[in-house]
Amino acid sequence: MSLKAPRQAKFKAINKMPLIIDCDPGQDDALMLFMALNAPEFDLRGIVAVAGNVPLAATELNIRILADICNRTDVPLYSGCEKPLQRSLITAEYVHGKTGIDPLEIYQPQVQLQAQHGVDFIIDTLTNAADNEITIVATGPMTNIATVLSRAPQLSVRIKQIVMMGGAMFEGGNVTPSAEFNVYLDPEALDIVLKAGRPIYAFGLDVTHKVMSSPKRVAAIRALDNPVAQAAADMLEFFDRYDSQKYASEGAPLHDPCTVAFLLQPEMFKMKACACQVELNSELTRGHTAVDFWQVTDQPHNIHWAHDVNAEEFFTLLTDRLSDY
Ligand code: RIB
Ligand code: CA
């Protein structure tokens, strides 16, 4: 699929943000990657696949295909955990299609996965980093990140911030009435992350349901004359079909791109420091993120909870970054 020489020459800026991305593509993960892979602001150290929307065999192939489409074969790609810490894997082909990035062509790109396990890659990167150096974007279940923190808790200080897509409070759940999918799949993993004492910026359904795609917004991306934008438009048209019916809306919420949009333009979001705990014991409310938004407890604040966004600025940023491929 690579049509041009690799693009890494563009990314030799200074003062770049050292970044690791952990994801489970998924069409919305793919759009997040399209933004990140064209951002000179980032020193992207690697992309790690986790099982989530579709099994690991699919998500690890999808990160290869997406990097190839973007001509970013310079970014090391890794495979991570194939199931949640304790629970069995539940996937979401009903939302994302069999491949996870339907309707894109599935093929074997030249770019291969690194031989090293994704968890070991993250541990090695933190080992060689300074304190508060590495930003982690996580847009799937937190299984890989929690495994890192459990195996090497002494390295958590090297993590500058964790920018995650997951959780829900005022919006309710999307996989059960109480829980958002990423957290529902591996609530024990999020519990470990919430207790690790690192800065967490959480983009749950409360904010992602405010960035809904629409035919007009997809048309603006479709009008861009490059293969990445066309792949984005193809995936959006597929991704919209399920959620637009479920929510009786014009389009689907663009969950995962909120993470990278925050890193690129934080001022478009409204965040509030809150205490957050996750339900582990009740089957009815498993994975519920109890965000103490109104400060009714004296629990310590452990997340910055995103609760509002300028949707026009979000889609302008997304479209701008897709136009530049
Ligand atoms: O609930 C939405 C989240 O679950 C998104 O990250 C989507 O890609 C799926 O992983
Ligand atoms: Ca995802």
CATH top-level class: Alpha Beta
| CATH topology term | Inosine-uridine Nucleoside N-ribohydrolase, Chain A
Bound molecules: alpha-D-ribofuranose, calcium ion
Order of helices and strands: EHEHEHHEHEHHEHHHHEEEEH
Instruction: Provide the CATH superfamily.
Output: Ribonucleoside hydrolase-like
What number of structural domains do the residues give?
A: 1
The unreliable regions are none
* Rg, Cα atoms, Å: 18 Å
> Count of DSSP E strands?
10
Could you say which structural class the secondary elements and strand pairing correspond to?
Answer: alpha/beta
Distance between the termini: 14 Å
Number of helices, counting only DSSP H or I runs of 4 residues or more: 12
Rounded mean pLDDT is 95
Strand order of the largest sheet: 3-2-1-4-5-6-10-7
Q: Tell me which CATH architecture applies here.
A: Alpha-Beta Complex
Beta-strand content? 15-25%
What is the 3D form? Answer: globular
| Main sheet makeup | 8 strands, mixed
Helical content (DSSP H or I, runs of 4+): 25-40%
